[in-house]
């Protein structure tokens, strides 16, 4: 490339002619063009990068939405299947319990006659005996058995705290369980047959025996006096709770 002024040799990198000192217009234009090209290149590169990031974000978002939708559908299907399985199993148990009603009632009477109340309650639960009309005459005693089981379970939690956890809230839990048990003794149930009065007496008889068992447990494991245990039924919720809480705290002190 020649200098237009003196004819000397020039390059695009020469801002001025090394021979005559005149400015090299082509060099200035070249530098300007390169600067513009560099700016355009950086701008294009940034746009491409943002475009890729945006596309990747939306692709990732879409993928996450699809995955979440699949999981939700899977959970719904699983819950539906579990519900159907439970429904089928429940219907089979009801059918079995109805078909063997005479046999199951004999077995239940044996448990009650032996005063094996925990087994009686579990037997009624296993065979869904509280949901079938043929067992309706046992509805009241089943309610008492349920509350009796709950009281016994709470007492065992107090006796064996290392197995079940801690003493936290157990005095309140036992007081509430006793309240519900005492209420169950006054419940008549839904049986309205000709021998309704006889079954109410039957329920009351077993309620009194279960109450005696509970009182024995309270005397044995919480060191309540016999009089204290027997008085709990007539106590207010607050007074019953205070008696039980004091007994549990004393038990904790002795074990420490």
What does this structure look like?
This protein has 256 residues and is mainly alpha-helical. Helix content is 74%, strand content 0%. The N and C termini lie far apart (104 Å). It has a domain at 101-129 and 137-255. The radius of gyration is 43 Å and the shape is elongated. The longest helix has 75 residues, at 25-99. Helix 4 (139-159) packs antiparallel against helix 6 (170-184) and helix 4 (139-159) runs parallel beside helix 7 (196-222). The mean pLDDT is 79.
Q: Treating each run of at least 4 consecutive H or I residues as one helix, how many helices? A: 9
General form = elongated
Gap between N and C termini: 104 Å
Mean pLDDT: 79
Strands, count: 0
What is the quaternary state of this protein? single chain
What share of the residues lie within helices?
Answer: over 70%
Unreliable stretches covering 5 or more consecutive residues: none
Structural class: mainly alpha
Report Rg. 43 Å
What pattern of helices and strands is seen along the backbone? Answer: HHHHHHHHH
Strand content: under 5%
Largest sheet: none
């Amino acid at each position: 490339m020649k200098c237009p002024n003196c004819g000397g040799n020039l390059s695009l990198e020469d801002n001025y002619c090394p021979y005559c000192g005149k400015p090299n217009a082509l060099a200035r234009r070249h530098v300007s063009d390169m600067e513009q090209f560099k700016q355009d290149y950086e701008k294009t590169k940034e746009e491409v990068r943002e475009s890729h990031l945006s596309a990747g974000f939306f692709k990732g978002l879409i993928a996450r939405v699809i995955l979440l939708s699949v999981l939700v559908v899977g959970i719904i299907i699983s819950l539906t299947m579990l519900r159907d399985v439970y429904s089928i199993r429940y219907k089979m148990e009801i059918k079995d319990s109805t078909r063997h009603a005479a046999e199951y009632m004999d077995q239940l009477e044996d448990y009650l006659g032996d005063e094996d109340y925990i087994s009686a309650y579990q037997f009624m639960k296993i065979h869904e005996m509280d949901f079938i009309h043929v067992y309706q005459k046992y509805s009241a005693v089943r309610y008492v058995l349920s509350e009796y089981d709950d009281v016994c379970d709470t007492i065992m939690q107090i006796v064996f705290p290392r197995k079940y956890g801690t003493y936290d809230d157990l005095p309140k839990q036992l007081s509430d369980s006793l309240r519900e048990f005492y209420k169950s003794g006054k419940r008549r149930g839904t049986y309205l047959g000709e021998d309704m009065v006889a079954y109410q007496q039957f329920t009351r008889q077993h309620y009194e025996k279960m109450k005696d068992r509970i009182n024995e447990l309270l005397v044995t494991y919480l060191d309540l006096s016999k009089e204290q245990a027997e008085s709990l039924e007539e106590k207010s919720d607050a007074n019953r709770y205070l008696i039980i809480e004091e007994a549990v705290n004393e038990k904790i002190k002795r074990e420490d």
